[in-house]
């Protein structure tokens, strides 16, 4: 069968042969056993819903074995034998250009060069899934190949509920992930529902088909590192940044450190992902002993090198050894997947990677004890360095939250706040999000590098023209963005699809998108998908990350994220998604995203102007109501530009009256 025929057939009527488990692939760890005997029967019944009853007798023992062996039913037998990558859009079957673009994005999320655990359909973060099983993937791709522009596909945590009649201006796909009743949002609730096959953790851009590889976070990380050094009034040259994690998102840190111009040490316990990041050029060097690391960092400091060094081992060993050797760490953070601490997101110190994985599956309580013991050691070592002048920030991965739950010394004197700020509190919130700057991104669906090159040039031209009249309050952000886009090609950021990320405000996003749409209309480039990370101005309510610099008591509310996705859906988004749990853990955050296809039409022009304006200014208005100075400035400026915008502004109280 051709590729198109395989897509169109969906779940095959004749079962393909069982697949051989490939140990060379970076697989998800075994999930802990959490289902009772009756619940295991229910999980099997749920999985078999996708198959004709004539296949049930053959599949029951196989799916039962998967559940026992891996803790999940992935349906490995159905994994396609074609190469998984973002093909040029015209290679997909279908009646809708928009649907073909979504297929392009889904396959990119599962590309072996992009996905963390591709055979388990997990893109990043240890559990950030595109689908729960391969039947869902096959059925979704089939629906997309059949749909017209007057239908909408609804996705329930990876399950394609079906195609429903709608209209051309409606979203083609509406996605929800992990949207459970609040009282059932504990980590073990997720483990059980996911094992039953009824809910999934979509992370942020995994389950919304908008992941573009580590580049998706490189720009934000570069800005964070640059502004971190600006905050401590220190030149990055010859300065040391220490962190950990080389996974799907955290793997961007070494590249960002190189762009910022500092020395980066990034620890990672997984040898496979370390090897992948080194081969991809995202890290310069790999060392395997702290002796070697100490000597290498001393040399880099002496020569004021710009270099990224991966330490294959536990980051706690790095912090403790650098303290013993009195090596000055200038910036420190952590980007392990601590939203997922008991299932592979963070590893205990003192035991091997393989031993830890075995402990995780077979003795989860002891594994949890060792993780919490490691968190306490980790925090103690950080405290010793900050006493010597290190600037440490929480990277929004729930490090301080989980460390506090482990009893680590991370609380402030009031025993309410954390001792260290979130990077959003200190850096990204006041410097970027309050002014509307966030991770706008685009994908050239032609798959042609030359199209991406053209879009980079278009974006740069738009930004340079905007910078000529931009107010002083946002000149630094504008210049950082221009520098970024000019260096995008030479920094070799593309992994998977021909994609780019750029921190832009509403004005920049709209003007860049309109310029793209005009170029498409002229035939200069092919169709473009617009999107953003959920980690943005408006899309996410996350009290320990995206909205951690909201101080009016509303940071635990999620009105903004819900309004954001509803507003996007009727203003022209091609697909929308709303998730529970991205980035910092299930039950800790609600986050929404979108995708929009530009095809060069006047209709696309109208949609982009309407939706992008709302998508950003919804968040700025909430931030301004929380009395954030930058956001008040930004929303007043937006109201001057758009007379139909009228936002409720806060009145400030004289503190002495209180």
Automatic annotation (TrEMBL):
This is Urocanate hydratase. Catalyzes the conversion of urocanate to 4-imidazolone-5-propionate. The gene is hutU. Signal peptide: none annotated. HAMAP family: HutU. Its EC number is 4.2.1.49. Belongs to the urocanase family. Its main location: cytoplasm. Residues 213-427 form the Urocanase Rossmann-like domain. The keyword NAD applies.
């Amino acid at each position: 069968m051709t590729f198109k025929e395989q897509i169109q057939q969906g779940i095959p009527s004749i079962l393909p042969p069982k697949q051989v488990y490939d140990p060379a692939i970076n697989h998800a760890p075994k999930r802990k056993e959490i289902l009772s005997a009756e619940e295991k029967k229910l999980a099997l019944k749920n999985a078999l819903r996708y198959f004709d009853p004539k296949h049930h007798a053959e599949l029951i023992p196989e799916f039962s074995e998967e559940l026992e062996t891996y803790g999940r039913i992935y349906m490995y037998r159905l994994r396609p034998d074609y190469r998984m990558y973002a093909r040029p859009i015209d290679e997909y079957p279908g009646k809708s250009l928009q649907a073909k673009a979504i297929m392009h994005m889904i396959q990119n999320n599962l590309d072996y060069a992009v996905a963390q655990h591709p055979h388990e359909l997990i893109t990043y973060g240890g559990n950030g899934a595109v689908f729960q099983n391969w039947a869902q993937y096959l059925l979704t791709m089939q629906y997309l190949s059949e749909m017209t522009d007057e239908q909408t596909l609804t996705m329930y945590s990876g399950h394609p509920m079906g195609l429903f009649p709608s209209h051309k201006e409606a979203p083609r796909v509406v996605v929800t992930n992990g949207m459970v009743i609040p009282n059932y949002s504990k980590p073990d609730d997720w483990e059980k529902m996911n094992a039953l096959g009824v809910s999934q953790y979509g992370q942020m851009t995994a389950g919304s088909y908008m992941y573009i590889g580590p580049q998706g976070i490189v720009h934000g990380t570069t800005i964070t590192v640059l502004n971190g050094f600006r905050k401590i009034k220190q030149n990055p040259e010859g300065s040391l940044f220490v962190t950990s994690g080389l996974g799907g998102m955290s793997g961007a840190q070494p590249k960002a450190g190189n762009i910022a111009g500092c020395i980066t040490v990034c620890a990672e316990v997984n040898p496979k992902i370390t090897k992948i990041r080194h081969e991809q050029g995202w890290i310069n060097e790999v060392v395997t002993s702290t002796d070697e690391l100490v000597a290498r960092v001393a040399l880099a400091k002496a020569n004021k090198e710009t270099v990224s060094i991966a330490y294959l081992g536990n980051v706690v060993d790095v912090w403790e050894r650098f303290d013993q050797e009195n090596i000055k760490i200038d910036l420190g953070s952590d980007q392990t997947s601590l939203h997922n601490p008991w299932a592979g997101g963070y590893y205990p110190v003192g035991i091997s990677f393989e031993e830890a994985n075995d402990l995780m599956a077979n003795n989860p309580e002891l594994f949890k004890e060792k993780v919490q013991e490691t968190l306490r050691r980790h925090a103690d070592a950080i405290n010793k360095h900050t006493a010597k002048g290190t600037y440490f920030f929480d990277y929004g991965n729930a490090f301080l939250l989980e460390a506090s739950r482990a009893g680590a010394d991370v609380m402030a004197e009031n025993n309410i706040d954390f001792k260290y700020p979130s990077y959003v509190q200190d850096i990204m919130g006041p410097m970027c999000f309050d002014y509307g700057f966030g991770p706008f991104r685009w994908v050239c669906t032609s798959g042609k590098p030359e199209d991406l090159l053209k879009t980079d040039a278009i974006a740069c031209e738009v930004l340079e023209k905007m910078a000529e009249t931009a107010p002083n309050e946002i000149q630094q952000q504008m210049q950082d963005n221009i520098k970024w886009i000019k260096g995008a090609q030479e920094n070799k950021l593309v992994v998977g699809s021909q994609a780019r990320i750029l921190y832009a405000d509403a004005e920049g996003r709209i003007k860049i998108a309109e310029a793209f749409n005009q170029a498409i209309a002229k035939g200069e480039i092919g169709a473009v998908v617009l999107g953003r990370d959920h980690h943005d101005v408006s899309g996410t309510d996350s009290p320990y990350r995206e909205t951690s610099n909201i101080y009016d008591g509303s940071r635990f509310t999620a009105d903004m994220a819900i309004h954001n996705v509803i507003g996007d859906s009727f203003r022209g988004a091609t697909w929308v998604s709303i998730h529970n749990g991205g980035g910092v853990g299930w039950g800790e955050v609600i986050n929404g995203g979108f995708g929009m296809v530009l095809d060069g039409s006047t209709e696309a022009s109208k949609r982009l102007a309407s939706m992008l304006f709302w998508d950003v200014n919804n968040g700025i208005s909430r931030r301004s109501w929380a009395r954030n100075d930058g956001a008040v400035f930004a929303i007043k400026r937006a109201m001057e530009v758009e007379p139909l915008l009228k936002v409720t502004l806060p009145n400030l109280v004289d503190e002495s009256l209180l």
